[in-house]
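WARN  no MSA supplied for this record, continuing single-sequence
INFO  ligand: KG4
INFO  echoing inputs
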Amino acid sequence: MNILGIETSCDETAAAVVVDGKQVRSNIINSQVAKHQPFGGVVPEIASRAHVETLPDVIHCALEQAGLGWEDLDALAVTRGPGLASSLLIGLCAAKALALRLRLPVVGINHLQAHLYSIFLGEEAPECETLGSAIILLVSGGHTCLVRMNQDRTFRLLGQTLDDAAGEALDKGATLLGLGYPGGPAIEKAAAGGAVDKRLFPQASTFKSGVLAGGLDRKLCFSFSGLKTALRYYLERHPDVVHNGRLKDVSASYQEAVFNSLVARVACAVEKEGDIQMLACVGGVACNKRLRNKLQDLANGLGIPLALARPEYCTDNAAMVAALADSRPIGHAAGPDAMDVVPRLSLMDD
Ligand code: KG4
Ligand code: ZN
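INFO  complex generated
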């Protein structure tokens, strides 16, 4: 099945054609980073305007690069949440218009669930049969979740952040360090060659066991706001960090503290579940080489494989949106009129 995916939930305008949920024929991503950079974060009004301006070209480009015409498409898939309402609307309206014109079904996709499906993209991706039961760490700019996925690709939320997301902690940390936006890649670059000092920031302090509202185990939940505050206080006490050559050490130490917190909970989830056969990490923060290495070390220690999507499938993209749609009963997709955006959609909502 040839599915055209459309993704406009935040500041990337993306379209992709994916065949049978795995083979990526095109994956076009128009990043708006340069437009938001002067403001130090995503400005919703600028984002939606940029989606309007670039989405038609991005879609044409995706079809052209896939070597397909409109008539070759079997279905459309579009992110309907979570995300910025005004940005989501642009993709949804485009998908609805195309669905009506081309008489194709359109599948509304949960962006967080689409991130989980990024591990199935590309030739090197694990096959369903080899997946077994997996722990997937989803780390993006707005979300940090621990998920158990079973062989049949059903999944369950095990833990999530109680305050900031990991990407948000890096983005806010980078702002405090004067490294600019987006913070994750900026901190990774600044941290290169830096020495990690574990005494600078709180290390992976895990919560005591206990059940939270929604049935989540407290031990598998994350908190990053204290870490960010610790960095702020550290910089207040050492205002000369940026100029005295210690920026790389402080960046490396802060980044390491964020990742230690992530890796500790992945290890905890593996132990708690007891039958885990694979680890995986998805979302923008999964591009980070240090995090990838730390997870690889954990997987090696556990003697199980680690599935990591290629970086272009980790950050926001439409290939993962199309891949998830392929697993849905397309014939029963709701008509375009019935679909709306849901900016606060959560991981387990369809
Ligand atoms: O998944 P994503 O593209 O968008 C959301 O759905 O939020 O994730 C964006 C997040 C940002 O916080 C960004 O700083 C982070 O991913 N990120 C990184 C790297 N590349 C992107 N964090 C650490 N290292 C990177 N190389
Ligand atoms: Zn995302």
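The chain has a mean pLDDT of 94.
INFO  checksum written, moving to next record
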